[in-house]
Amino acid sequence: MGSLQRMRRAALVLTLLAHCYSGQSLCRSFAAQRSLDQLRQKSGNQIHTPAITNPLNRMVVPQEEMRIITAISEAGSAGDWPRAKAAYIRSKGLFTNVFNAAMVAAFKCRYYNDGVAIYKRLCNAGLPKTEVTYTYALKIFSKLGQLDQVRDIIQEAKEQLKPGIPLFGAMIDAAAEAGKVTEAIEILDTMRSENLVPDTAAWGSAINACKTARNSTVARHLVNFMIKVGVEPNYIVFCNAVGAHNGAGLVHLQKLKSDMAGMGIKGDFLFVETYVFSLIGTQFSARSVTEAVDELSELDPERLTEMASIISEARASQIRLTGLVKNVEGALQRLGFG
Ligand SMILES: *[C@@H]1O[C@H](CO)[C@@H](O)[C@H](O)[C@H]1NC(C)=O
């Protein structure tokens, strides 16, 4: 692909931002890009041993180690970390694949600190890292909120290999955890410029960044943009977009709900709760109907009507309501709505 074409493609998302925020933000995006490049050029200062080819890895993985990988993976999928860890400990620690399997299992079982220990051991052993290694290291460190490590891993991964969709996805997730909207969009841009088609999950996690940052404008534009480039949103995309609209204008929330229904995507109890919370617009935590009455009585009647309507729609579709939403339902009845 020609570089001009590539630039045109890459500019798409930035153009989107420019539309939202006048020329200024475009400059800011480029500034952010520059500092990322500087970051990439900065050498040294890495905590990880750079990947080096270990002759041992050219060897066929022996049967015993293969069995260990299987045992780790099975236990990890079953959510049984102690069993996965016991299998991992039996390994001689000579093969990246065993470490990868253990990191995946630790992540699935949410034993993030153990995941870090496994990653560090792999680094110290000087074993080569694969895309799976970097992807899960990123997921683990971003769950722990260790942003410096996240940054270093992204840098090292980009130096060592050409990231594919899963690794880019983990990078967007890391940006999303930290609520870094511009960074998430830049990663989408990079993917597009490298001719990778960001999938629904990648767009969904960029919209999740908007949710963390409460950036409804960008969330809305990302939903429209993904549809425009032919990627179908799913339930998670809408759930995140609605979450990004906490306290935002009623019309925007109503539009998201009707777009979702128009695409035949069904909500569930989590969507209903997210929608109700976004209508309320504060950290809602009423533990009783009486407390909920206090919180809701401040709100605009139009928002209360909308709340009553989504709750009754949920009842009609037999969606199980969460405790908090039930309190809202009770409060709405007391206030004469629904
Ligand atoms: C939303 O994100 C964009 C891009 O990072 C930024 O320019 C804008 O200021 C953000 N808006 C809000 C309300 O945070």
From TrEMBL:
Keywords (A to Z) from UniProt: Repeat, Signal
NCBIfam families reported for this sequence: PPR
Species in which this protein is naturally found: Polarella glacialis
PANTHER family to which the protein is assigned, alphabetical: PENTATRICOPEPTIDE REPEAT-CONTAINING PROTEIN GUN1, CHLOROPLASTIC, PPR_LONG DOMAIN-CONTAINING PROTEIN
Annotated signal sequence range: 1-23
Taxonomic superkingdom: Eukaryota
Keyword Iron-sulfur attached: no
Classification via Pfam families: PPR (PF01535)
Protein name as annotated: Pentacotripeptide-repeat region of PRORP domain-containing protein
